[in-house]
Amino acid sequence: MAKITPRSQDFSQWYLDVIREADMADYAPVRGCIVVKPYGWALYENMRDLLDKRFKETGHVNAAFPMFIPMSFLQKEAKHVEGFSPELAVVTVGGGEILEEPLVVRPTSETIIGYMYAQWIKSYRDLPVLINLWNSVVRWEKRTKPFLRTMEFYWQEGHTAHATHEDAWAEVMRMLDVYHKHGVEDCAMPSIKGRKSINERFAGAVNTTSIEAMMGDKRALQAATSHDLGQNFAKAFEIKYLDRDNTEKYCWTTSWGLSWRFLGALIMVHGDDQGLRLPPKVAPIQAVIVPIFKNDAEKSAVMAVCERLFQTLKAAGIRVKLDEREETPGFKFNDWEMRGVPVRIEVGPKDVANHSVALARRDMPGKAGKSFVPQDGLVERLRALFDDIHASLYKQAEDFQRANIREVNTYEELKEATQDGWALAPLADDPAVDTRLKEELQVTNRNFPFDQPEGDWKCVVTGRPVRERALVAKAY
Amino acid sequence: MAKITPRSQDFSQWYLDVIREADMADYAPVRGCIVVKPYGWALYENMRDLLDKRFKETGHVNAAFPMFIPMSFLQKEAKHVEGFSPELAVVTVGGGEILEEPLVVRPTSETIIGYMYAQWIKSYRDLPVLINLWNSVVRWEKRTKPFLRTMEFYWQEGHTAHATHEDAWAEVMRMLDVYHKHGVEDCAMPSIKGRKSINERFAGAVNTTSIEAMMGDKRALQAATSHDLGQNFAKAFEIKYLDRDNTEKYCWTTSWGLSWRFLGALIMVHGDDQGLRLPPKVAPIQAVIVPIFKNDAEKSAVMAVCERLFQTLKAAGIRVKLDEREETPGFKFNDWEMRGVPVRIEVGPKDVANHSVALARRDMPGKAGKSFVPQDGLVERLRALFDDIHASLYKQAEDFQRANIREVNTYEELKEATQDGWALAPLADDPAVDTRLKEELQVTNRNFPFDQPEGDWKCVVTGRPVRERALVAKAY
């Protein structure tokens, strides 16, 4: 039954095997593109809806912008075009004619946002503008790794405009916090908030922040970013407002994004050698009912109970599936374990007689995760169990993260620590330092965590005095 | 205060004025493209979510397919490529290099769906496949009319595969019915289900069905289509399954789509000279609270009541807005009327004293739509009022539709009836007939309604005997 490579043997192959066997996604006929299959997309939709709720609770509204951007727009912000030019998909023919000005398929929407905001924003009364877009963007990419590296990827991009830099920076931090909380509270995924190095800033930003999460192979994944764009785009696109003092001022803008990489991270943080393990809040199926019987007489009694439980759980708003396929219970157990369903509900002839069911937790293997409970009160019991499972998945991930970050003070210690984990190292915010780490150790400065004591440190690369330490790791 | 052109004066200009003044959408810097602003997008999201619920209730699941399709795919189905070639946007450059094979930005996804289904479907046990996509597609178009005519448009496209033609046809009709019900029950919009003429079939379909709705200017709008693709795409892409009898057979496929034209239709069916009128089930704001006061003492008493009512309604799940802007009540009344909010709740000093509020219905102008009710029980009263408003909007639209369809039996009658309404006319299903109607009268065969008695008619154009009548009208 071993359909997937063990994690310890080849983590990367394990990831691809899980995606395939859990029926999450497939390769598209265009290089770099994937098709997200219904099970994978249902997971994405659940994550999207929970994040969208957080956006709306913090005063944001959604809108829709076109996928095409005139090539000339990208050239208005110098660093932006430099950063994105090599990755563009360009439409040169439309309606059978060669276009006078080629159109870029958006790699991100700051430029067209800037163009429209310049028209919409007149006065301080129009600020802040707090808009989010759910869409897909294209950045040319020939290698494909589902969700982690794709040419077209689905994401959300938030774009806001403010009267002061203080307001803009508060927004940057607010949204970074929203991403962090989405990870912790919806996806049971810990991450570390911090500021990106100068070298790793978004093209056109004056400051980029990120949350970094530790995957099951101890590599780091940038799970979301939130950018302070200063007045760079406001000046490039003339986004101005008339202030209370009757003078015209440039706005301060931000942007922030989280893509379906987050879904890839979810797989890599929680998955095990039996497949996916999904946190209940985002799982497409939270509980699956598997009937167990040997003959027709048993079947009809068992199925009657299963059907009744199914209707009860469904009516209570639990995402429940009744597995009526003509397969063995063993096949079904493996299948739903592979798909990461948090709770399996087994109903056999004894359960019919005893008004009980057997519950099996996906997050705890074998007997430890199994319990026998009455059919009455199953809804409440499941709800409590979902909370437990969420907490247990989070604790496992957080323990793992904590155990694999080492504080270091020398280059040698950094080198050793990042062979198999993360290092927290005093580091200068200098592109030359980033480059050296990448070239010599194949590691990167992930971020300077916000939550750390300042100190009188010495950069482990340059020896220069620094006030902060950085997380350094091999990364996706 | 007349910000918009009267409907009776220039319907087309009225439509554009409403879109602008209700802050629904704006023109993008790329010809043919629009930006949907937050208020317009909130309406689209509400419509989308209600339709999506109907899809899921009928057993469908969502997935995501790439926006890029290899040019060669389109060429595999002869009529399909013929139909879509003139409308394609083509990516010829990617990552700085000229592509060996150009990529088409999807105009619709039948071809890439066909390619993937051929890999996924092996056995009769895999059928039916019932997948829906929410995305945007591109069909080259230089003229722009927000929601009605845009180069990129948002829509959903359903794609299903079945073992028999009977199953496929049942799906075609099931989804046409879902669209019809979405119109009637969610959007208070009547429409007529029928079969498209041969001439108007989707490129590659063996049969196309539609729902046709009457706009406020009596022109017809094809609000959604559902296609029987026969085995055309199955044969072009080798979508085959092994049947119970152990022989390999081609699948039967369908596709069906509804775009943001439906939102445009909603505006044109319900709107009046004061602006939008939105059915409560899809309205972004279902009720707006407008405080009325003359001085600070009144203000604090009035605002306390407004705030309490706002929290009560919000907690009950009503989409409510409290308008705290520093504008006059009259300005606010006009503004929310323009935006089509179904119910306005006015709270003044007398209401504070009497524990009452004034309710004003958007669907009934002036005093007829106004009532004074107690603050207690407002939630239940509003819910009932929403149902009333929905029913009243539907009745107005249906009465209008019925009053403006004329049964005709001669070409002269057809000509006269379609000057200012629809005709129901005996008509041959012959492309030459469709062409003649278009050229001579600038009208089109909308569909052959399913719900009509068969008869021994004579085609009003050719005089040939026919069994069915067609709806004929000027159309969007």
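qc> The longest strand of chain B covers residues 152-162.
qc> done
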